[in-house]
Amino acid sequence: MQGSDGVSSLTRGRLWSREEATAPMEYKVISALVLVFVLALSTLAETQSETCVMAPRERKNCGFPGVTASQCTSKGCCFDDTIPGFPWCFTPKTIDVPPEDECEF
């Protein structure tokens, strides 16, 4: 039986089935890629950390003259006004955290 477009209902049904089967597969592939990406980012986050403890000469300015502690920390920066001649508001230092050794019992 042919429709007004000249395509049989059997053929139309098969094409629709193929399209239906392809769409869920695309979602599965996208979901798998997102999962891999999230796992990779979480691994990276576990191996790096930030600290405000550093030598004064390592400080990189993050503020402006007269910045307050609350203004500085609201920008995600460190604040320490105890050492004159060095930036009081400075960017935190990124440090690598070694992975913990697994306990062998």
Could you characterize the architecture of this molecule?
The chain is of the alpha+beta class. It has a domain at 50-98: Spasmolytic Protein, domain 1 (Irregular). 43% of the residues lie in helices and 11% in strands. It has helices spanning 9-47, 69-74, and strands at residues 48-51, 78-79, 89-90, 93-96. The longest helix is centred in the first third of the chain and has 39 residues, at 9-47. It is found in: Secreted. This is Trefoil factor 1. It comes from Cebus imitator (Panamanian white-faced capuchin). Pfam families: Trefoil.
Helices, strands, pairings?
Layout: H1 9-47, E1 48-51, H2 69-74, E2 78-79, E3 89-90, E4 93-96
Antiparallel strand pairs: 1-4, 2-3
Short description:
With 105 residues, the protein is α+β, with helices and mostly antiparallel strands. It is 43% helix and 11% strand. It is found in: Secreted.
Gap between N and C termini: 71 Å
Unreliable segments of 5+ consecutive residues = none
Major beta sheet summary: 2 strands, antiparallel
CATH class annotation of the domain at 50-98: Few Secondary Structures
Radius of gyration: 29 Å
Strand order of the largest sheet: 1-4
| Assigned CATH architecture of the domain at 50-98 | Irregular
Q: What general form does the structure show?
A: elongated
What is the N-to-C succession of helices and strands? Answer: HEHEEE
Count every beta strand, where a strand is a DSSP E run of 2 or more residues.
Answer: 4
Can you give the helix content as a percent range?
A: 40-55%
CATH topology of the domain at 50-98: Spasmolytic Protein, domain 1
The helix tally amounts to 2
Mean pLDDT across all residues, rounded? 77
CATH superfamily of the domain at 50-98: Spasmolytic Protein, domain 1
Name the beta content range: 5-15%
> What structural category characterises the helix and strand content?
alpha+beta
